[in-house]
Amino acid sequence: MTMLHYRDCPGCGVRLLMSEEQPDSRYNASPECWQLYGELTAYTVTRGDVAFMHQHAVDTYGAQHAGEQARPITVAFALIGLYLACEQDYSGKKVQHMHMLLARRTKTWPPFTPPALRGSLTVLDVLRAPPGEQRDHMLRQWRQSVWDAWSQEHARVRALLESVMRD
User: Fold this and answer.
1) Does a structural domain hold residue 92?
2) What is the pTM assigned to this prediction?
3) Measured between alpha carbons, how far is residue 163 from residues 34, 82, 123, 160 in Å?
4) Strand partners, 29
5) For 17-33, what is each residue's pLDDT tens digit?
C-alpha cells in the first residue's frame, strides 16, 4: 500500500499532495502551490479581460507568499496593488500603470512584516471555482481576504504610496 504524503505551503498554508519537486525558497511557496499559481496565471493571462485581472492575481499571490527571501519591492508593490484594487477600485491595468510610475520614482522600498495568517482563501480556492465569472469573483474574494490579513500594515502602505507619489 502506497502512503500519500502531503506538504503545507509555507506562504498560504494550503495542504496539497506532495510532488517530487523541491521547494524554491525564493517564492516562499510549496512546489505544488507554485504549480497552482502557474495554472491561475495561464487562466488570467488568456482570459482576455480588458481590466487585466492578472495583475490582481500577481499581487495577491505575492502578498500571501511574502517571505524572508522576498525583495522589499516585491512585497511593497503587492501590498500597494492590493490597496489600490481593494480600497480604490483600481483595475489590474491601472495598478500595473501605478507600479510603473512607482518604479520610476524610487529604488528604495521598506520591508513589511507578514501577518501570521495571510488570508482565509488561497489560489486553490480560486481554481476550484468554475472558469468564467465564478472564478473571477473568487479571485476578487481571495484578493480581499489577503488584503484584510495585512491590516496591521494598511496605514504604512497608504503612507508609502502617498510619500512616493508626492516626492
Assistant:
1) yes
2) 0.95
3) 33, 17, 32, 5
4) 24
5) 999 888 877 889 999 99
